[in-house]
RNA sequence: GGCGAGGUAGCUCAGUUGGUUAGAGCACAGGAUUCAUAACCCUGAGGUCCCGGGUUCAAAUCCCGGUCUCGCUACCA
C-alpha cells in the first residue's frame, strides 16, 4: 500500500447546544484521535480538524425557551466542549466553530460555486408562514402534537420525546412558536441538491470501489439509500440563524445546517492554515491527500452520500474511508442526556480527573476502557463494573504492574541505572523477546491502518503480558539471592533488567496513540524526550543507553475501588430519577423552571373561549379494533358515536393490543377534517394522555355514559 | 411493512475464500511464587455457534424460512 502524501482527518462536529457524553467520545473523537496520534508518530503530514456546529434551528429555539440568545448558547457550550476534549487528550489541530466569519465566507463561496454552475435546482413549494411575525417558519419553529407518540410539544423536524424525525406537515395542530398562531401556508423558493443526478457516481464509488474496504454497516446503509431512490434535497431554509444564502432571491434564507456543517471541516482547515502559516488547498484538492471522516452511525448518510456529492461538484477530493461506529449503551439502556441516563464528558472530568482522584491518568483509564469496548462492528455497552475490571485487571495488573516491577527491581538490583548487556549470557528467551516486540509492532501498525483500534490496543497490553512472562522465567529476584555463590548471577540479572527496560520504552511508544498521558509519564520515568515516542523507534532495543540513571518508581495508575463504582451507579440512577421527576413537574407546572426543560415545553399560548368552542369533543366507544397492514403504529378503530359509527385511525399500535381496547370509552375530536392514511380514511382523532416515559393513556369518562355525549 | 447491520463461553469480542478437537481477554477454580498496586506466572473448567430446514464427503461459515436486538425508512389527525 502506497503511503499517502498527506492526511486530513475529521471528527464529527458536535452540536453546540449542550454537553456531550462518552458515547460521542467513543464513537468518533477517540478513534479519530488514536488514528491521528499514530499518524503523527509516523511523522506523516496530517491535520486533525473539528469544531462546534453552531447553526440549525434547535439553537435559536432553545434560546427562546431559556430566555437568552442563540449567540449566548453557543458562546457557553463551545468553550466547554473544546476544553472537555482537551482534558481527555483529544488533540485536534484546530477546534473551530461554524459561527466564525471565515466559515460563513467559505460556506457562501461553496454554495455560490455550485449554484453558478447549475448544480443546484430551485423549487417553489408551500411552507408554513407566520403572518403576524411576517416570516416563514423553519421546522423547529413549528410545534404540535407528535403523530408518533402523542407528545404535545413536538417540533416540526423532530419529536424530542420519542426521537422520531418529522416534517412540519405531519404535526397535529401545528402552532408557530413565534406568535402562537396557527401558521398559514405560503409559497417560498428553495435550493435543492439533486442527488438523483449523481446516482451513477455514488453507485460506482460506494458499491463498487468501496464495497470491500469500508465497514459493512456503512456500505449497507448507503446501499439502502441508493436503492431507495435518491431525491433532490433542500439545502436552504427560511431562517435568520446561519449562513445567509448568498445569491439573488436568498433574502431571509440561510443554508441548511446539514449543508453548512460539513463545510465546517474546510473552514477549520483554512483557519488552521492561517494559524500555522500553511496552505490549506492541497488538503482538500490534491488527490494524494487521504481524507478520513470519523463519525457515529447516525451520520452515515451525510458523510457518505450528501457531502461527497457536494465535494465532487465543488472539485474537492472524496473521503478515502468513513469508519463509522455503532452506538454505545450504558448499563443496559440507551444513553440519553435528557433522560439523565448518560455520563457527560464534563461530569467524568470533574469527578475523576481531579488531582486528588488520579489526575490525567484517569483520562487515560477512560480512553482505555472506551476503546476496549469500542462499538466498531456492533452496539456495545459501557458498565461501571466493566470499567473497573478493565482498568484494574488489565491496565493496572498487566501493563502498569510490569513497568512498576521493572522499575523497582532495576533500582534494587542495578543501582537505578540501565545495566549493560553481557552477550555471552544472552539466551533464547532474550532473543524471543526482541523478536516478539518487532512482531507486535508490525501487527499493531497493521491493525491501526485498518481502523481496528480495539484489537490494536489489545496487542499492546499483550506485549506487556509477555514482559511479565519473560520476567517470571528469568526470576531476577531469585538470582539476587545467589550473588555470592553464582558468579554469573549479576550478569543474568543485568540482561533481564536491560530487556525489561527496553521493552518498557517500546511499550511507551506503542501505547502512546491510545494513552498519551501515560506515554508521557513513562517518558518522564525514563528521563527521555517525547521524540523517543516516534513510531520508527518501536522495535528498537537500544532506546535507553547503558549506564543512564532513571527516575524512582512511580505508579502509573491507581486501582478503582468498589465503593467508587457503587457511587457512580447510585449517581446514575439518582440522576435519571431527578430528570424524570423534573419532566413530570414541568408537565404540571411549566412555569416552575425556565431552564433546559429536557424537551418539555411551556404551556401553549392562551386562546379565547371561541377558539375552544370550535372543537367538537365527544365520547365514543371502540367497538372494533385491528392493526393496519404494513404499518407498525397504526390501529384501525371503529368507534360508536351514538348517532353514527366511524372509522378512526390512531397511531397507538405500539402501546395497545387491538383486543384489549374494544369496549373502551374514549374522547374523540369529532369535527376534525378527515385524513387518509395507508389508503384508509380516518374521520376524527382519539385523545391520549402521555406520561414522562411516553406511556399512553386513554382519556375516558370516569363512568360509562352514552356514546356521542358531548364534552365541554 | 421495506431496507441495512448484528445474534458465537457467565461478560466483552475474534473466527480470513466451507476443512481436524470453534479461539482470546476478563470473571471463576486449582497450583506455584513473592520483585511488584492481594499484583504476576502456570494449569483447568465452559459452548445446542439464536431456532428450523436445505446444499455438501464436510456448515459458525453458503441457500431458504422463522425469531430477537439496534439503526434507517414508511405509516402517525
What does it look like?
The protein is of the alpha+beta class and 712 residues long. 42% of the residues lie in helices and 17% in strands. Strands 17, 18, 19, 20, 23 and 26 form a six-stranded antiparallel sheet that branches. Strands 3-2-1-13-14 form a five-stranded parallel sheet, with helices on both faces. Strand 24 (688-690) and strand 25 (696-698) form a beta hairpin. Helix 2 packs across helix 3 (70-87), helix 12 packs antiparallel against helix 16 and helix 13 runs antiparallel to helix 14. It is elongated, with a radius of gyration of 31 Å. The chain starts with 5 loop residues before the first strand and ends with a strand. 41% of the residues are buried. Residues 585-602 have low confidence and may be disordered. The structure holds one RNA strand of 77 nucleotides.
Number of E-state strands = 26
The first-to-last residue Cα distance is 75 Å
Q: Which residue ranges are poorly predicted, with pLDDT under 50 across at least 5 consecutive positions?
A: 585-602
Tally of helical segments: 20
| Morphology call | elongated
Helix content bin: 40-55%
Radius of gyration: 31 Å
Q: Strand share of the residues?
A: 15-25%
Overall pLDDT, averaged? Answer: 86
- Sketch the major β-sheet: 6 strands, antiparallel
Secondary-structure content class: alpha+beta
Amino acid at each position: 500500500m502506497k503511503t499517502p502524501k498527506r492526511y486530513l482527518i475529521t471528527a464529527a462536529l458536535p452540536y453546540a447546544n449542550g454537553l456531550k457524553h462518552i458515547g460521542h467520545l467513543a464513537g468518533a473523537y477517540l478513534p479519530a484521535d488514536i488514528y491521528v496520534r499514530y499518524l503523527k508518530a509516523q511523522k506523516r503530514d496530517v491535520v486533525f480538524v473539528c469544531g462546534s456546529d453552531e447553526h440549525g434551528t434547535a439553537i435559536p429555539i432553545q434560546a427562546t425557551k431559556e430566555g437568552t440568545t442563540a449567540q449566548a448558547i453557543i458562546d457557553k457550550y463551545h468553550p466547554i466542549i473544546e476544553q472537555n476534549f482537551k482534558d481527555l487528550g483529544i488533540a485536534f489541530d484546530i477546534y473551530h466553530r461554524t459561527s466564525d466569519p471565515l466559515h460563513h465566507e467559505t460556506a457562501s463561496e461553496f454554495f455560490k460555486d455550485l449554484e453558478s454552475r447549475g448544480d443546484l435546482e430551485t423549487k417553489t413549494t408551500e411552507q408554513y408562514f407566520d403572518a403576524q411575525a411576517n416570516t416563514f417558519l423553519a421546522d423547529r419553529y413549528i410545534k404540535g402534537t407528535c403523530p408518533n407518540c402523542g407528545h404535545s410539544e413536538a417540533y416540526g423536524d423532530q419529536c424530542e420525546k420519542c426521537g422520531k424525525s418529522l416534517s412540519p406537515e405531519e404535526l397535529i395542530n401545528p402552532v408557530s412558536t413565534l406568535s402562537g398562531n396557527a401558521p398559514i401556508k405560503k409559497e417560498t423558493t428553495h435550493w435543492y441538491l439533486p442527488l438523483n443526478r449523481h446516482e451513477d457516481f455514488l453507485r460506482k464509488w460506494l458499491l463498487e470501489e468501496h464495497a470491500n474496504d469500508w465497514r459493512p454497516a456503512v456500505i449497507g446503509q448507503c446501499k439502502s439509500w441508493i436503492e431507495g431512490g435518491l431525491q433532490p434535497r433542500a439545502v436552504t431554509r427560511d431562517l435568520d440563524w446561519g449562513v445567509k444564502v448568498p445569491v439573488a432571491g436568498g433574502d431571509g434564507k440561510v443554508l441548511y445546517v446539514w449543508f453548512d456543517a460539513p463545510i465546517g471541516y474546510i473552514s477549520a482547515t483554512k483557519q488552521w492554515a492561517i494559524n500555522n502559516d500553511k496552505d490549506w488547498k492541497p488538503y482538500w484538492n490534491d488527490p494524494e491527500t487521504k481524507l478520513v471522516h470519523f463519525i457515529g452511525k447516525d451520520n452515515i448518510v451525510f458523510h457518505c452520500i450528501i457531502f461527497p456529492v457536494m465535494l465532487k461538484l465543488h472539485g474537492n477530493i472524496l473521503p478515502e474511508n468513513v469508519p463509522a461506529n455503532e452506538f454505545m449503551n450504558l448499563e443496559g439502556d440507551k444513553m440519553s442526556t435528557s433522560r439523565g441516563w448518560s455520563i457527560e464528558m464534563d461530569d467524568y472530568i470533574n469527578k475523576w480527573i481531579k488531582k486528588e482522584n488520579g489526575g490525567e491518568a484517569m483520562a487515560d483509564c477512560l480512553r482505555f476502557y472506551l476503546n476496549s469496548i469500542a462499538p466498531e462492528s456492533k452496539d456495545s455497552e459501557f458498565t461501571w463494573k466493566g470499567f473497573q475490571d478493565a482498568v484494574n485487571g488489565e491496565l493496572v495488573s498487566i501493563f502498569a504492574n510490569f513497568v512498576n516491577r521493572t522499575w523497582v527491581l532495576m533500582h534494587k538490583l542495578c543501582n537505578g541505572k540501565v545495566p549493560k548487556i553481557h552477550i555471552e549470557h544472552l539466551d533464547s528467551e532474550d532473543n524471543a523477546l526482541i523478536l516478539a516486540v518487532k512482531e507486535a509492532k508490525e501487527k499493531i501498525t497493521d491493525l491501526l491502518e485498518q481502523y481496528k483500534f480495539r484489537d490494536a490496543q489489545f496487542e499492546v497490553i499483550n506485549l506487556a503480558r509477555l514482559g511479565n512472562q519473560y520476567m517470571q522465567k528469568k526470576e531476577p529476584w531469585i538470582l539476587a539471592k545467589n550473588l555470592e555463590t553464582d558468579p554469573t548471577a549479576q550478569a543474568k540479572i543485568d540482561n533481564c533488567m536491560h530487556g525489561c527496560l527496553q521493552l518498557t520504552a517500546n511499550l511507551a511508544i506503542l501505547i502512546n496513540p491510545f494513552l498519551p498521558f501515560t506515554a508521557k509519564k513513562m517518558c518522564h520515568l525514563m528521563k527521555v524526550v517525547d521524540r523517543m515516542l516516534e513510531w520508527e523507534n518501536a522495535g528498537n532495543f537500544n532506546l535507553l543507553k547503558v549506564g543512564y540513571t532513571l527516575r524512582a518508581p512511580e505508579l502509573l495508575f491507581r486501582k478503582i475501588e468498589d465503593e467508587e463504582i457503587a457511587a457512580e451507579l447510585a449517581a446514575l440512577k439518582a440522576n435519571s430519577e431527578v430528570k424524570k421527576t423534573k419532566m413530570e413537574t414541568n408537565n404540571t407546572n411549566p412555569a416552575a423552571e425556565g431552564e433546559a426543560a429536557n424537551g418539555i415545553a411551556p404551556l401553549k399560548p392562551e386562546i379565547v373561549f371561541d377558539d375552544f368552542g370550535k372543537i367538537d369533543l365527544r365520547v365514543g366507544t371502540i367497538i372494533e379494533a385491528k392493526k393496519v397492514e404494513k404499518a407498525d403504529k397504526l390501529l384501525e378503530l371503529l368507534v360508536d358515536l351514538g348517532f353514527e359509527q366511524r372509522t378512526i385511525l390512531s397511531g397507538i399500535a405500539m402501546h395497545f393490543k387491538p383486543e384489549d381496547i374494544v369496549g373502551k370509552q374514549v374522547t374523540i375530536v369529532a369535527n376534525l377534517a378527515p385524513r387518509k392514511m395507508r389508503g384508509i380514511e380516518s374521520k376524527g382523532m382519539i385523545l391520549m394522555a402521555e406520561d414522562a416515559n411516553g406511556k399512553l393513556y386513554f382519556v375516558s369518562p370516569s363512568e360509562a355514559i352514552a356514546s356521542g355525549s358531548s364534552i365541554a
